[in-house]
Fold this protein.
Amino acid sequence: MASQVLISISKDEEERFRRMSEEKYQLDRQSDLSYAKQEGREEVRMEIINLLKSGKSPEEIIKEFEKPNR
């Protein structure tokens, strides 16, 4: 009887650790995606600033960003 309880507790603990691991993986993935998105935004922002500094007009910058191979 006691061994069955220990086996049951052990299985529950294994399942809990497995679920925690899955949840951590999902949270890490969401964090990575969020970071990548932010980095992409920052890169675009810096590119726009550099284009403005180079003397391009807002209209020229918009055309630059509308190019299909961009």
Q: What stands out?
A: The chain has one domain: 2-66. The first helix runs from residue 2 to 53.
